[in-house]
Amino acid sequence: MNQNATEPVAAAESLAEVPEHVLRGLPEEVRLFPSAVDKTRIGVWATKPILKGKKFGPFVGDKKKRSQVKNNVYMWEVYYPNLGWMCIDATDPEKGNWLRYVNWACSGEEQNLFPLEINRAIYYKTLKPIAPGEELLVWYNGEDNPEIAAAIEEERASARSKRSSPKSRKATVSAWRPGVLLQPPRTSPGSVGMSRRRLQPSSRDPSSKSRHFACSLTAPEVTWSQ
């Protein structure tokens, strides 16, 4: 190995390269600008106040096997009963939506979004109010975070309140547990939770992580951002 060789520098994303469909799909509360946490990337910034508990999604991308993914920064892994673990890959901006541009938080203090897997789709939910001029930043902490646990309990309460509907009676959102790599989790009808990545979250280096979620069957109805 050549010790003097330098690694290639990642090309910086440009606002001019953002697909038109992504711009059209932005909620009125946010806009795209260069990120403050990664100078090579575009970020999502609040232009209006966003209340705690606001849900955005779903995260859009190509469904692929893990071996077909070349960049794990813009993807989540979701378990499908008939397919196993599949990646929702938004590496190609043409295949994704605006949630592709939400960057990773570098600390718990920075984090203002957390991910939820609902009906085999990934949503981001606000962990706290977001003021205009703040960048939207996501990380998963698991249910050991009291605020996230409380937010998940709200989802569970919502699911319980809709059990009279045949569709919602089957609602589940499952939680992935560390160390259980081969056996998908089992959930009871009406349960709601947050999945975890297969990799441990001790490092917040997005280049070394993939976003990993477990499956659900059906889930409470949610409002999709347009």
Give the SSE map.
Elements: H1 20-24, E1 30-34, E2 42-46, E3 55-56, E4 62-64, E5 75-80, E6 84-89, E7 103-104, E8 113-118, E9 121-126, E10 137-138, H2 146-161, H3 166-169, E11 211-212
Parallel strand pairs: 5-11, 7-10
Antiparallel strand pairs: 1-2, 3-9, 4-6, 5-6, 8-9
Biased composition (Basic residues): 159-170
Region (Disordered): 156-226
Domain SET: 28-141
Question: Explain this structure to me?
Answer:
With 226 residues, the protein is an alpha+beta fold. It is 11% helix and 20% strand. The protein has helices at residues 20-24, 146-161, 166-169; strands at residues 30-34, 42-46, 55-56, 62-64, 75-80, 84-89, 103-104, 113-118, 121-126, 137-138, 211-212. It has a four-stranded mixed β-sheet with strand order 4-6-5-11, with no helix packed on it. A hairpin with a 2-residue loop joins β8 and β9. It is globular, with a radius of gyration of 18 Å. The termini are far apart. 35% of the residues are buried. The model is unreliable at 1-8, 168-210 and 212-226 (pLDDT under 50). GO terms for molecular function: histone methyltransferase activity. It holds the Pfam family PRDM2_PR. Residues 156-226 are annotated as: Disordered.
Summarize the structure.
The chain is α+β, with helices and mostly antiparallel strands. It has helices spanning 20-24, 146-161, 166-169; strands at 30-34, 42-46, 55-56, 62-64, 75-80, 84-89, 103-104, 113-118, 121-126, 137-138, 211-212.
